[in-house]
Amino acid sequence: MRVITSKTEMKAFARQTRAAGRSLGLVPTMGALHEGHLSLVRLAKRQCDTVVASIFVNPAQFGPHEDFSRYPRNQEKDLQLLSQFNLDAIFTPSTDELYPEGFQTYLDPGELAAGFEGKSRPGHFRGVATVVLKLFNIVTPDLAYFGQKDFQQVQVIRRMVEDLDLDVRLVVCPTVRDADGLAISSRNLYLSAAERKAALALPHSLRRAQELVHTGEMATRKILAEVNKVLAAEPQVAVDYLMIVEPRTLQPVERVSLGCVALIAARVGPTRLIDNLILGSPSASPEQLLQGALSAVIQTDTCTRLPGLETEILRQRVENCRDCAAIPSIVLPPRQFLAEYLKTHYPDLNVVEVAVIGQDSPLQHSENSFYSDPTRPTLFAADVLQLLGLKDFQEFKARFVLTDAIRCHSSHIHVPEKALENCARHLEAELKLFPNLKTIVVLGEDAYHQFQRLLGKPASAQIVPFSEKIGEKGWACEEVDISWLGGRRLRVFYCYHPTLGYLRSPSIGPMLTPDPMGESRGNR
Ligand code: AMP
Fold this sequence. Notes:
By secondary structure, the protein is of the alpha/beta class. It contains 19 helices and 16 strands. It has helices at residues 7-19, 35-47, 75-83, 95-98, 117-120, 124-139, 151-163, 193-198, 201-214, 220-232, 286-294, 309-319, 322-325, 335-345, 379-388, 393-397, 417-431, 445-455, 466-470; strands at 2-4, 24-29, 50-55, 89-91, 143-147, 169-173, 237-245, 261-268, 271-278, 330-332, 354-358, 400-403, 409-410, 439-443, 475-482, 488-495. β8 (261-268) and β9 (271-278) form a beta hairpin.
């Protein structure tokens, strides 16, 4: 393992490597190496023919009152740790080698470097960007390895690479944590035993944010309020910032979407620690989460409700519903609706004003091809459109959504009560995806009972028989305050199921025309 201290020698080494046609990977570090650094080295070894690690405590990225002089340095131990990887070279320049007398040119990163670490540590990213550019120029790597642990740093460097047309690919590795969850950092060495314990409030708070998102809470304000409670319970922790941001711009978001990142910095005693967590689906691996954050599409229209993380989390909840799994007769929840059809047909969930709830509606194995193949005419589709007074599927999906009262289909005619309750819970969560829902159309007797008993939650426990409710008119309408929509009043229509039985409801289309004022008719 060659230890190189001079720029000239490092450049010559890089030239030879390139001349031999070997790919070159660089892992820049400030030493005091730990498992986090080693994870970068390990990946670099797998991906590159030649790997160079650099160890340089960069004075330019420390503020005048920061810990530059006492930052942990132990080159002997670092070299020993790296020896297991059989690296091609370790670049350990002195400060004078990288910043000789008269040095005065610094790189000025832009807006991405202004907030968070940049705000709390003025000049920090100027120093980081300058030294990383210098290292890129000296080592000329094909690939350079960075840790998610310093998420803002990754984005600042990524921007620099793009803006300055640098010929290097960045590889980002997930944060490595100790067994108790604390993100590993060279600065953890400063912590006393008590502080080390208190520092766990950081990962705990991030995990709380993740838990909330996984239960479907997407409002940043509510998530942060809960997370702050976790932090407030630990008096030794003084929060510097805590924010949920859009991953590419680092702008705070009001609602969480796939790849958003919770960023935190806090002082634990005198030691300043940072951590972050990428929010995504519960089943995503750390690498997938990173991919999600690094490739996240910026949503410029903040009013649009894209089916995304929220839909995906709900889909997994329905699929993994343990209560349903415990009921042997349950065959399959209608996963396609959440997994595919919403994404395909509803790029903006805001458009949905009317939810049509009819048994068997979006089931893959049923006759119904309403969503899977909307061009194929079926009896069910034709009858539903007629009932709603619509011309075709295009008109339908502009304002309507079709879903199912029974989420968990049973192989028996009788669906167990427990399953029905689960179905109702899942349907509630599903309907909450549509913020502008004003009307519900309930198709058929089974859906009527399910709605009356478990969803509408009427004041009287007595449920009027379906035929009586429908009466001679062939349909009924009532206004219902829906508790699971925060008490919002919706209009609910009850109709015969178009393809079941012989009785038909007349078209309710005239009563479903769009409200020109955009107000809920239920309030009239
Ligand atoms: P540092 O020595 O602190 O400048 O870190 C060198 C590189 O290792 C940076 O790209 C860091 O983001 C990365 N790194 C530091 N700690 C961790 C960690 N716990 N997990 C993954 N990467 C890390």
